[in-house]
Amino acid sequence: MTVRLNVEALELEQKKHGYMNDTQLAAAIGVSVTQLWRAKLPVDDDRHNSPGPAFIGGVINAFGGPFEKYFFLEKVVRVRTSNSA
Length: 85
Known about the structure:
Helix content is about 50%, strand content about 10%. The chain has helices spanning about 5-15, 20-30, 35-40, 55-65, 65-70, and strands spanning about 1-5, 70-75. Strands 1-2 form a two-stranded antiparallel ribbon. Helix 2 (about 20-30) crosses helix 3 (about 35-40). It is globular and about 40 Å long.
């Protein structure tokens, strides 16, 4: 199982709380802008990263729960392949 970010729900909460950009949102949840950007990318993008415990905790602390409002579990785990030739 992999934790995935509900990007739409997070972005709605971002607007609701007046965070105008991802830099402000990242500071509010205590992660880097890069972590936030990677979590928001589509799952099939090789640069995508699933949110970790600090990210999840930061979102819950900043906006309240429940976990299921912002995150979901995905049964299929994506396997990254090397593009080296």
